[in-house]
Design goal:
Largest sheet: 7 strands, mixed
Radius of gyration: 21 Å
Helix content: 25-40%
CATH architecture of the largest domain: 3-Layer(aba) Sandwich
Number of domains: 2
Structural class: alpha/beta
CATH class of the largest domain: Alpha Beta
Number of helices: 13
Number of strands: 12
Length: 400
């Protein structure tokens, strides 16, 4: 009898975490490495949020809380959904988890049975397929190519839906591509979903506040109110407020689903960190200056990276609408050989050679389900990005 679960054999460790760890190990060994793998703002958590956490500690708010969130935070989340998305939820329709990942996983565990399918547009966040597999479901991929801005069409979505489809996972702005769907593009997809009432929508809006220019963010249940009763609208404070380590994610949805997710959480982690929850209340209810300022910084960095990468031989880098990633194609590099003698057979080989020979850590595209590409997180300093792009250009110029 095997000791480890057969289910575990179906999943793989997170490639983004692996790249970040590898870059850290090389730095500790004395190598000059610029890590562009982590999807984490480099800014510090705003002072008002830190002060709220300190106040919570000093007033003794360090005990167990309700399993899926304190009343104060659920109230703040309800107000946020109403204020920013035009979605009306009651506290009983809100769940709070230990990060956005737990919220998504709870929903999948609470709803999937063997044979249930989950449609996932590619390129996708690396954890979506493996969470589906761990929950007993089957991921079904739909490719959004670079030619269509890494977005899928209504016709593609229609073709992917079967009687076994339980969920569609929707992520805009996207990790890894930064692509964001306009209201018109999203309406095309929601029109398809309205024709398939057995399909639920899991909308991962984690990068909602990171859109650039005059782009208007919208979420599925906002665009199509007819989907409200079968949509789980997910979000969190990690990216918008530089609170990745605080581990607070949340979602709004139908009461029966929220209750089922609470049951899962009650037998796994129980409540999220009490202090983090009080900090999240301040994040949502307090001044939003940081959100505005960080958006400006990320837009500047996006423009810097896109312009620099498009000077690199063999690389084509579209301009994304949001998040803090770019997802350039390395199609023009495939088949060439690096100065170190590595044949660039695919994007994984490109990323490995780039790290070894140029000291730049990126995540290869196959990890996100679409090749030949790689992902750069530009959530780091302008100086580091400028140097990294210069190294990437020199590496590409050295390919023969």
């Amino acid at each position: 009898m095997a000791f480890l679960s057969d289910t575990l054999a179906r999943v793989k460790p997170s490639p983004t975490i692996a790249v970040t760890n590898k870059a850290r190990e090389l730095k500790e060994a004395g190598r000059d490495v610029i890590g562009l793998g982590a999807g984490e703002p480099d800014f510090d958590t705003p002072e008002n949020i830190k002060r709220a956490a300190i106040a919570a500690i000093e007033s003794g708010k360090t005990k167990y809380t309700a399993v899926d969130g304190i009343p104060e935070l659920k109230k703040a989340i309800c107000a946020k959904f109403e204020r920013e998305n035009g979605l009306s939820y009651k506290p009983s329709q809100i769940t709070v988890g230990t990060g956005g990942k737990q919220v998504l996983y709870n929903a999948l565990v609470a709803t999937l049975n063997p044979g249930d399918e989950v449609v996932i547009p590619a390129p996708y966040w690396v954890s979506y397929p493996d969470m589906v597999l761990l929950a007993g479901g089957t991921p079904v991929f739909v490719e959004g190519r670079m030619q269509t801005g890494y977005k899928i069409t209504g016709a593609q979505l229609e073709a992917a839906i079967t009687p076994k489809t339980k969920w569609v996972i929707f992520n805009s702005p996207s990790n890894p591509s930064g692509a964001a769907y306009s209201r018109e593009e999203l309406k095309e997809l929601t029109d398809v979903l309205m024709r398939h009432p057995h399909v639920w929508v899991m909308s991962d809006d984690m990068y909602e506040h990171l859109t650039f220019g005059d782009f208007e963010f919208v979420t599925p249940a906002q665009v199509e109110p007819g989907l409200y009763d079968r949509t789980l609208t997910c979000n969190g404070v990690s990216k918008a407020y530089a609170m990745t380590g605080w581990r607070i994610g949340y979602a709004g949805g139908p009461e029966a689903l929220i209750k089922a997710m609470g049951k899962v959480q009650s037998q796994s982690t129980s409540n999220p960190c009490s202090v983090s929850q009080y900090a999240a209340v301040e994040a949502l209810n307090g001044p939003q200056d940081y959100v505005i300022e960080s958006r400006k910084a990320f837009e500047r960095r996006r423009d810097l990276v896109v312009a620099a990468l498009n000077t690199c031989p063999g690389i084509t880098c579209p301009t994304p609408e949001g998040a803090f990633y770019v997802y350039p194609s390395v199609e023009g590099c495939i088949g060439k050989t690096s100065k170190g003698g590595v044949t660039i057979e695919n994007d994984e080989a490109f990323a490995a050679a780039l790290l070894e020979e140029a000291g730049v850590a990126v995540v290869f595209g196959a990890a996100f389900g679409l090749s030949p590409n790689f992902r750069i997180s530009y959530a780091t300093s302008d100086a580091a990005l400028t140097e990294a792009c210069a190294r990437i250009k020199a590496f590409c110029e050295g390919l023969k």
